Amino acid sequence: MATTATKQQPSGPVLDWSAGHGPVTGALSATTGAFAVATTGAATGMPPGWALAVGAAGALGHTIAGLRVRNAGRTLATRAASWLVGAGWTTWAMVHGPLTWVALGSLATIGVGIGTAARSTALYEEAREEEAIAAAERQIARELSAERRAIAAEWVDRIQRVCSITVRVVGVEMWATGAGFSIDAELPPGGATYAKIAAESARLSADARLPHGCTATAGPGIHQGRVIIDVTTSNVLAEERTYPTDYGPLSVLTGIPWGYRTNAEQILAYLREQCALVVGPTGSGKTNMVHAILAGFARAEDVLTWVIDLNAGSAGLPWVLPALNGEIKRGDGQPVRPGIDWLAGTYDEAMTMLDTAVKVAKQRKMAYQALLAERNTDLLPVSPRIPQIMLVVDEGAEILASTDRTVRKLGEKILEVIRIARAMGVRTVLTALGATGNVLGNLMIRREAKVRVALTGGETEGMDLSKMFPGSRGLRVDQAPFKGAGFMATPESPAALFKAWRILPNQIRDIIAATSDRHPTLDDVSAKAAGPAYARRWDAERTAWMRDHTPNDDSATAGTSGPGLNLSALNRPDTERGSAHDEMLRKFRAQIDAEFATAPEPRPEADGAPPAAPGGLNLSALRGEQDSPAQREALALLLAAGPEGTGASAIARALADAHGTTRQTVVGWLKTWTADGTAVRVGEGTKARYVHRRHAPEQPPQD
Fold this sequence. Notes:
Helix content is 44%, strand content 13%. The protein is an alpha/beta fold. It folds into four domains: 23-136, no CATH class; 164-234, no CATH class; 244-547, 3-Layer(aba) Sandwich (Rossmann fold), CATH 3.40.50.300; 554-599 and 617-692, Orthogonal Bundle (Arc Repressor Mutant, subunit A), CATH 1.10.10. The strands form three sheets. It has a ten-stranded mixed beta sheet. Strands 1-2-4-3 form a four-stranded antiparallel beta sheet. α2 (48-68) packs antiparallel against α3, α3 runs antiparallel to α4 and α7 packs parallel to α16. The chain is elongated.
């Protein structure tokens, strides 16, 4: 039989013996102490002078201690007098007896006097301390006010000089981070708006002689007649900051941090109802930004992250493999869960994931009608019990803009998820290589992706900020020349400079371990709709591609001199069959094998033997002095483009991820091929295209 011990509750008043004395307890302690000493001394024949000597020593000690803490003179005098009066009464009582009415009455009078004096000096010391604090605050306020007045006057003149607007500064707030300040100003009557000041951001920054990377940006105030001007004086975007090591819990309802503004404050992305679009050319830090986004989702208690990356799943593998391979453990030695809930690196797996997302959204709409009615809302209440599904599609915007029939089906499924699943807690984050018309041409993306990020890294090609952030003025790519820096806009904050944190590989592993037991599980309603396709997502046969590092067999024959057409540089694993680019290359290889004979590999003549007779298809342009896989693949793309041809930008984009090829490099190849007759240039200026000589129109004979 179990028994429980009950704590004995103390009775009577609770005394805190560690507390200091107040006026009453101090006086009571002094008088009772003096009475006890006097009584004991009279009974034992103690010399009366001893009590007086002890009192003098106490008075001297308190005076020295008071001087050290800079007590007021009246406080020092009161405490010394209390010691001397108490010692004097004790000495007198030891001689004449402490038990007489005269002795007791005088002791009571001394006690009241000591208590009253102690209370008076305590109030005086408190008032004196408060006055000292207030004086210091007034001094600081005077200094700050002087600085603010100087800033206000300076910027009133500057805005008048640059923008021809006379404003009245209402307040100046210095940022706690020390990176700048904000000016709250009232616009003059007559219809002036903050947009006129915002349009002159560059000129204001130059007139203020701000450091490179620092800006003066204007935004709306508390009403349309006010303007807030944020002035950055320290370029925090120039320095690299790693992802914060506080891996505490987050929620999609309270925002996920994606980076920091120029004032060094975090910027949050609210994605309960919004989708997001992140664009950035090669080398701008887009992949790092994706990892930072996944880190925030991993920390959230009400988010399940599904990732699609047809580039061999590279965006999600660092969040999956350490857990699947058992490389990291929890503190109790138990295995951890992957940092994301599902990863699709192939076309088939991506279609399975998207079909599952559609089924989950539709099932939630039917099954949670009672819950929606109970909560009186049309938005599914997202929580750890019913988590939101965040679908992250790397280069998903390119999938939506693709002209390939197979990839187009994938894009249509992504659009269906975006269109039907907002209320049911399924949202998407798409990435793209550039802010171009092809990417932003889809109305669904423009309407739903209200959280937008443009990582520029100083790259101007394909970064049309006016299309990415319509209505925002004064945004220039050269304001964010640093890797990982760019512009970010949300429905809560207009487009402005920001920078993503640098997240290191070891941090990814730490976040996986720290958040393993925080990930929610798919609710029963959704899990039933998802079925085996979701339940078996981590089966060995479904994840074999993540561990299969066996090189393609064709690569073993690369560079051999035997007969036959060798296009090993164009080979790709079957797991990448979802890529439109790879599908095109496979069709091209099949076309060559079916329609043409093959030419032998070129080899040096030896022993005076005559060269081999020409015959078949000669792809010598794919080899040669600059025989690189990227160059061979570029020529293959040119041939596969057919009579309509292609341009340098399209070829460079196709080769960027696999080879890091730039547009300037491709332009050089095309000029060389045009000069030697391999390619033909058609059209002029921006409409110029390059066509392989096999598909080029016949040229009229020259006279």
